[in-house]
Design goal:
The protein is built from 9 helices and 11 strands. The radius of gyration is 19 Å and the shape is globular. The chain has a 5-stranded antiparallel sheet with strand order 1-2-3-5-4, sandwiched between helices. The protein has about 280 residues and is of the alpha+beta class. Bound molecules: adenosine-5'-diphosphate.
């Protein structure tokens, strides 16, 4: 049940609302009011403390830096043990012919903008998992210390991983400096799988539900390829605007290791086996 107090706190005269399905951890709604539609997400304020204000800051950072639609944040707040994020509603439509080229080029231009460190202004979330964002000047150190090792440790603590898996993870981290080409940090969407974009009524992509940080740009590319991949035009346009370093395809398992660890924590199952297979090569 959507609380009347939260609706009131949103500050819009809501005439009706409908549940929206699709997210994993949040309740989501379409609100109707003031002759417009709004998107509202709600979850437990204690369990996921600060999640939506961090998401709001991530959305705003993306909106300022990418030539794609990013839903405007209207308000976030917290009351009676729940937190909420109120956003602009995005209607969907079929894609225009050059939608994928536009999407790929826009992501490349985002990645091309200089950032000064790997990390972010604060820790945030990827899904419901806390994402450590301590600022670092070296990608290989950031990826090991803030992405791989904390999650492997969680999985060891949860009894999903063995001590040997931790040893394999440490061996992987020691190789990171050789595995990744040195590149400047780039502002990333951070969770750019196919469930986190939609095609707006303009016929072009909107991106949402980010887990932003400044990282190696191949992290976003790896995420686009994790569950099916985007259309080939996307990668062609990306490469034209900001060519990926040689052998980026061979590095996909290394960039995908992080989201696969996140999925291992959240869902277990096959994800755990895939992670072990990737890390096992470094034992
Ligand atoms: P969660 O954080 O729970 O994963 P999402 O932000 O991914 O939630 O949103 C869940 C679903 O709601 C998405 O898959 C998408 O279909 C839809 N959605 C997300 N943002 C908007 C928006 N601004 N306007 C309309 N629909 C949206």
């Amino acid at each position: 049940m959507l609380s009347q107090d939260i609706l009131q706190d949103c500050g819009i005269a809501v005439t009706r609302h409908e549940a929206v399905h699709g997210g994993d951890i949040n309740k989501a709604y379409c609100l109707y009011g003031n002759g417009q539609k709004y998107f509202l997400k709600i979850n437990n304020a204690e369990r996921y403390s600060g999640m939506f204000e961090k998401e709001a800051r991530g959305l705003q950072a993306l909106a300022q830096n990418i030539h794609l639609t990013v839903p405007a944040v209207i308000k976030f707040g917290s009351l009676q043990g729940e937190q909420y994020l109120l956003m602009e509603w995005i209607d969907t439509s079929p894609a225009k012919k050059d939608c994928w080229q536009n999407f790929g080029a826009a992501l490349a231009l985002l990645h091309k903008k200089p950032a000064t460190y790997f990390g972010w202004i604060e820790d945030n979330f990827i899904g419901s998992v806390v994402q450590c964002n301590h600022q670092q000047t070296e990608w290989h150190l950031f990826y090991g210390e803030c992405r791989i090792l904390p999650l492997v440790k969680h999985l060891v603590d949860a009894g999903v991983f063995s001590k040997n898996d931790m040893i394999a993870a440490e061996a992987f981290c020691k190789r990171l400096e050789q595995l990744f080409p040195v590149e400047p940090p780039a502002l990333l969407h951070g969770d750019l799988w196919s469930g986190n974009y939609m095609i707006t009524t303009s016929g072009y992509a909107a991106i949402f539900d980010p887990a932003v940080y400044c990282g190696h740009r191949e992290m976003d590319i790896g995420m686009t390829k994790l569950f099916g991949g985007f259309a080939p035009y996307f990668y062609n346009a990306y490469n034209e605007a900001y060519p990926l370093e040689k052998d980026w395809q061979q590095r996909l398992p290394y960039t995908q290791l992080y989201p696969l660890l996140v999925h291992s924590l959240l869902f277990g199952g096959n994800y755990v086996a895939t992670v072990k297979e990737i890390m096992g090569q470094f034992h």
